[in-house]
Design goal:
TIM Barrel; single chain; alpha/beta; globular; 9 strands; about 325 residues
């Protein structure tokens, strides 16, 4: 089983076919960065058209059982998530609506302060807001997973403690391996994992040691050390693959509508676009290389299967349904 718990590619038949060539059974895709509710609905509509156009390649994912169905039918299950709470605007009632539409992950902030939590680029981290506490409670109730990938340290720790269900960091790496603002310090990872949560290791070059020049061995050794420290069952892959995206999409990701200036984020003013991927991982066909890299540093059996996808499957099984409901939906 192979699950990638974060991609934001420029979707096309080519990429859908590469997912099948790479044996990727499920992906979590970002369908909102700064979109409001109506704009996000249009993104749901676009995916519905793709599901109609390519029924032999992809299918909509809502429950863990959809991953199993995708495997049985030779397709990739597609799960939806938001990298910002902007689709719920200022209306807590929209939490249940977006879950009904198919959203399964929502970040409480994207780099900046939101109505719910502080982003990792803010100078002051004031933690989870009053509205944030209420939204977490509602997300727990309906089965919308709290994602803190772009949130600041205090906010992430508080979210892990406040949430009555496990939370996720869908795409990041340890800060001590690569000190990017977006990567997570040990106390943050510990708060998430000790509360039963999950973290997906990212292949986005700005999150990697030596960026685009990061070696497969270095990446896999980092995974091994992190797993030894916090437990193998809490980790998976969240590549943050942004394949075939134009540089204008980076500008939308970083700037949205909140600034008139270009925000280069973790990039360089001289290179505001997407950095090149490491040579050993260009697209979904390279998942076999990653699996072989993990084998080379000693992963095998249940631990290897867990990192490659089984851990995310288990997480889906218990966290996508409403509180108190049975895990599987047929």
């Amino acid at each position: 089983m192979r699950i990638d718990n974060l991609q934001y590619a420029n979707w096309s038949e080519k990429i859908f076919r590469q997912l099948r060539e790479g044996g990727v059974d499920a992906i979590h895709v970002t369908i909102a960065y700064h979109e409001n509710f109506r704009e996000t609905v249009l993104n749901f509509e676009q995916w519905n058209r793709w599901f109609e156009q390519y029924p032999d390649l992809i299918m909509k994912g809502q429950w863990a059982s959809d991953v199993d169905q995708a495997i049985e039918t030779g397709r990739t299950a597609v799960f939806f998530g938001f990298q910002n709470p902007s689709p719920i605007e200022d209306d807590i009632g929209l939490v249940e609506i977006v879950h009904t539409l198919g959203a399964r992950f929502m970040q409480l902030s994207y780099n900046n302060q939101s109505l719910l939590a502080t982003g990792c680029y803010e100078a002051e981290d004031t933690g989870i807001t009053r509205m944030g506490k209420q939204v977490i409670k509602e997300m727990n109730r309906v089965g919308l997973v709290v994602d803190m990938s772009h949130s600041a340290d205090r906010s992430t720790i508080e979210a892990a403690d406040i949430s009555e269900r496990p939370i996720a960091i869908t795409h990041a790496n340890p800060y001590d391996w690569s000190p990017a603002l977006r990567n997570k310090k040990d106390d943050v990872i510990r708060a998430v994992t000790e509360n039963g949560g999950m973290m997906g290791f990212s292949l986005y070059p700005h999150h990697l040691q030596n960026k685009s020049d990061c070696t497969l061995e270095s990446f896999c050794e980092m995974i091994a050390r992190t797993v030894d420290k916090f437990g193998a069952e809490h980790f998976g892959i969240g590549t943050d693959l942004c394949q075939d995206q134009p540089d204008s999409v980076v500008e939308w990701m970083r700037v949205g509508r909140w600034s008139k200036e270009i925000d280069y984020g973790e990039g360089s003013a001289a290179a505001p676009g997407f950095p090149p991927m490491p040579a050993w991982f260009n697209d979904n066909r390279d998942f076999g290389k990653l699996e072989n890299g993990l084998r080379a540093v000693g992963f095998e059996g249940a631990d290897l299967a867990g990192i490659m996808g089984r851990n995310w499957h288990n997480f889906y099984e218990t966290n996508f349904c409403a509180a108190g409901e049975t895990a599987q939906h047929e």
